[in-house]
Amino acid sequence: MNAMTCQDVQEQLDLLAAGECEPPIRDALTRHLQQCQACAARYAQSQRVLGLLDMHFKQDGLERLQARIEAEAQPRRKRRFAAPFIGGFGLVAAVLLIAVGLSWWLLRDGTDQKGPGPEFALLVRPGPVKPEIVPQPPAPLKAKDVEAVAVVALAERNGDAARRELLKAQRGGKLPFPPAVSLELVLVNTGKLPVEVRLGDATANLALDLTGDGVLRMPAPDAETPESLRPRTLQLEPGNELVLHIDRLVAGSPGKLEYIYLTEPGELTLTARLHLTAGGQPVTVTGKAVRIKVGNQTAVLP
Amino acid sequence: MDSNATDAELVEQTLRGTTAAFQLLTARYYRPVGGFIFKRVGRVDLVEDLVQETFLEAFAALKAGPGPRNFSSWLFGIAHNRCGKWLRRKRPALFDPNEAPDLPVAPSDQALLEELEEQRKLEAQLDQQLQSLPDDTRRLLELKHRDGKTCEEIAAETGRPVGTVKSLLARTYKALRTALTPGEAKS
What we know:
The structure holds two protein chains of two kinds. By secondary structure, chain A is α+β, with helices and mostly antiparallel strands. Chain A is 24% helix and 30% strand.
């Protein structure tokens, strides 16, 4: 391809910032930007405008933040959840393992105070380990003094490269599955009365908020609806649990799902939030944020 | 809760344990803080996480101690520190080892307030520009920026050729960039 002039480049800069240039043009533009400060400055302006547009249209971030603040504002319950830690607990790198020993509490929609009505606690605990996916004894991972430990296969590339690959895959309609995980969300009726719980209706939503580096979220509208969002109605007696298995990092609502990819080792914060209908009224149950560690290694928990 | 309350009044109520007051502050400052962070880290995918960390840190601080003298500059100071922390972690990838990053120097309260004002002005301009767009152009931007669709997906959904979608998108971006960037119209 012939060298591009500044005018050629500036015609394409906005589409480049939007990730909408074909690879040969993108490469030529990138080469030009590395050498031309004027065009690079204009490209930065374009990125800023597109960033403003993203923030303008993505209003659900504020809702997620406010839900987390509500959760932080709730008083801690003294009753603690004893996670069933088992010695010699191992997973292969492609499995996320979360072990928590934390208290969780109910968060009702739009209120500061708990009112009359159904009460739940939402717990996250390690899911069943499948021995057949453990090819060799796992290496030890120190887990003392941490609230949770996660082990997950990382993308081979770093965040930016992985994002580009995923965008390319998404354009081709071949978005890969997000990391396999072994998690259980446990919904406990902590009230004194039986409650009819309905999942998978029009307002159902599962949020897996992960705060930290290397979290990539990609819309996956054609993804299979996860178990936690499949339609079902059941009666939950006081003290009883509804266990929802999570085997992939898939969140959102039916028809508006997203895949969550992790690309960097380090520490993340996970907040699980489940929106369901209970006793005929919408309820959002939020767990306290838990710290998890992410690394591309196998693990043993104490 | 009075949405017209001043920042100081909302901080005072937050200190007394009224979470709803802090929620009003989050609604008031969510976008400005997002813009402030984006300007520093340059990656939209990081903004939400850093904004959340900023507000959660602010909330925890208000629960634990006395309120700040000026909430907005204090909040932006937290956001600035969060960005600095992230950039320092990324430093090897982002900076030449011989070139010190310029972020760790904390800006003054006055500079932060000026930046907040600039950010608010920019958002107001953007809102105004978006309102003046034809419905189908605005819909196009929603599909792209709210739903994260590609031009190919938008073309399939709207029944337009991909080239038409790209052209319209490019024209819209250029118009917005020109309107929102000082001096851009003259260049």
